[in-house]
């Protein structure tokens, strides 16, 4: 299985679009893992022809249904998730090209063939879990749903009333999404992470998904009147009630630690200040009448360590619950991550005047939003390429988007992990520039893995020759 696969999906021509379709040809390269290259013929002389490298795993034409997309992408990855791995799927394309239709879908109530990848995958996971007789209610297997959107440097929890969350990098390099601070009795301070909504039936997950979608921010753009101005992230994780409860316990232990840790710091500062005096020259010297009450400082620090140990034990219990292996049951913590990226009409790396010709003029607000979106998409490309090339340093901290995705990319063993990008493009000749630039982005992402595999083939061949 490829480390990162890139697919292309052509959307149907809108009924009110009278422009011609973009002429295109495909070539499958059997000597390059059967990857496909795409050749675009420009509709007017002001554009130049363009041909990609062998970078695309599969190309879906405009007649393809969501059901076909699901069948091609998800079933091969189900075994990975059921063994505890993480699989990531990105939808990339300009506004109106079909990203949200592919990832989220619009027909949630009627025809399953139109379900987006999120809901279709949840149905498949529930069918695979098939856990009707758990040993106890706490061991019943279900799916945990997390749904949030990223806008500039902030995340918004779509399953918790669109609560504003802060993106923070921890001391260990991990990224944390923390909500607003809650002040509790006895000085406790609780900061909840993104909410996980446990679902035990597909209908529960469907209802939660719809509720979250209703809170997603959209706005008018020069390309699309319901254009997503944010990146939407949907996580579907294999969980039990015991795992959810264990994670909640960590949050509670952390809230208990905050006032104790603050008191220990206050005691240390207070004792340190009492142990010095200021001379007439403005110099601080040891206080001859009073030194540091070390016993008081030690007692406060000991209590702090006690509460830190409670947090550590709670975190270890989460790993213990997640690591419990039962014969014939799927591993906990495996997840699908779906990312509906913001419109790529802002991404202009490597474009000249000809490539940008005909693009609609952007408003000042779009330009401001576009700068952050552009930063995010550039950073995502570099992260994907760095991982495909197996570089020692992966630039996750280049943008808030890649910081958030860090744990998902690293949530699997390198050899077993799987990620894919679905490029959604328009066949309309009026959208030639936007379509070509979407394919250019996918070409850069997909070609990196192809180049790496070719290098590995050459190395293996060289070793055989040397023998």
TrEMBL record:
Coiled coil: 297-324
A Gene Ontology term for the protein's cellular component: microtubule
Entry-linked Pfam families: Kinesin (PF00225)
Keyword Cell cycle listed: no
Database matches in PROSITE patterns: KINESIN_MOTOR_1 (PS00411), KINESIN_MOTOR_2 (PS50067)
Alphabetic keyword roster: ATP-binding, Coiled coil, Microtubule, Motor protein, Nucleotide-binding
Chain residue ranges for the region called Disordered: 1-37, 448-467
GO molecular-function terms, A-Z: ATP binding; ATP hydrolysis activity; microtubule binding; microtubule motor activity
Binding-site residues for ATP, renumbered to this chain: 93-100
Domain Kinesin motor, chain residue ranges per copy: 3-448
Biased composition (Basic residues): 458-467
Single biological process term from Gene Ontology: microtubule-based movement
InterPro entries: Kinesin-like_fam (IPR027640), Kinesin_motor_CS (IPR019821), Kinesin_motor_dom (IPR001752), Kinesin_motor_dom_sf (IPR036961), P-loop_NTPase (IPR027417)
Family to which this protein belongs: Belongs to the TRAFAC class myosin-kinesin ATPase superfamily. Kinesin family.
Name of the protein in its database record: Kinesin-like protein
UniProt source species: Aspergillus nanangensis
């Amino acid at each position: 299985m490829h480390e990162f696969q890139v697919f292309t999906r052509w959307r149907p021509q809108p009924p009110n679009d009278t422009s011609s379709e973009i002429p295109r040809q495909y070539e499958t390269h059997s000597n390059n893992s059967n990857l496909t290259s795409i050749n675009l013929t420009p509709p007017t002389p002001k554009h130049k022809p363009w041909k990609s490298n062998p970078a695309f795993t599969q190309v879906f034409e405009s007649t393809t249904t969501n059901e076909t997309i699901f069948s091609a992408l998800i079933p091969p990855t189900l075994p990975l998730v059921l063994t505890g791995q993480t699989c990531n799927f990105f939808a990339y394309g300009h506004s109106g090209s079909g990203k949200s239709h592919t990832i989220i879908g619009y027909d949630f109530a009627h025809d399953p063939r139109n379900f987006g990848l999120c809901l279709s995958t949840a149905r498949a996971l529930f069918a695979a879990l098939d856990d009707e007789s758990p040993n106890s209610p706490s061991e019943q297997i279900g799916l945990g749903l997390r749904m949030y959107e990223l806008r500039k440097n902030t995340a918004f929890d779509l399953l918790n009333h669109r609560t504003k969350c802060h993106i923070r990098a921890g001391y260990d390099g991990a990224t944390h999404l923390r909500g607003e601070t809650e002040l509790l009795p006895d000085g406790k301070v609780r900061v909840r992470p993104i909410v996980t909504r446990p679902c035990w039936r597909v209908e529960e997950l469907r209802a939660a998904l719809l509720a979250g979608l209703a809170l997603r921010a959209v706005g008018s753009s020069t390309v699309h009147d319901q254009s997503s101005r944010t990146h939407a992230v949907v996580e579907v994780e294999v969980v039990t009630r015991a795992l959810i409860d264990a994670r909640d316990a960590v949050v509670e232990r952390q809230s208990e630690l905050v006032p104790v840790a603050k008191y220990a710091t206050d005691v240390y500062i207070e004792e340190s200040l009492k142990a010095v005096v200021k001379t007439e020259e403005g110099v601080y010297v040891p206080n001859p009448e009073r030194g540091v009450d070390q016993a008081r400082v030690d007692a406060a620090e000991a209590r702090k360590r006690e509460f830190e140990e409670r947090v550590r034990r709670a975190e270890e219990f989460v790993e213990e619950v997640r690591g419990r292996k039962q014969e014939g049951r799927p591993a906990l913590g495996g997840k699908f991550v779906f990312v509906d990226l913001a419109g790529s009409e802002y991404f202009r790396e490597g474009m000249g005047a000809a490539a940008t010709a005909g693009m609609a003029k952007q408003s000042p607000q779009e330009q401001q939003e576009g700068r952050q979106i552009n930063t995010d998409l550039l950073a995502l490309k570099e992260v994907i390429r760095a991982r495909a090339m197996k570089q020692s340093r992966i630039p996750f901290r280049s943008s808030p988007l890649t910081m958030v995705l860090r744990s998902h990319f690293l949530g699997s063993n390198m050899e077993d992990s799987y990620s894919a990008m679905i490029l959604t493009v328009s066949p309309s000749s009026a959208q030639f520039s936007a379509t070509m630039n979407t394919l250019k982005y996918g070409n850069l992402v997909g070609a990196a893995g192809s180049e790496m595999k070719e290098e590995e083939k050459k190395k293996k061949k060289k070793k055989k020759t040397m023998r």
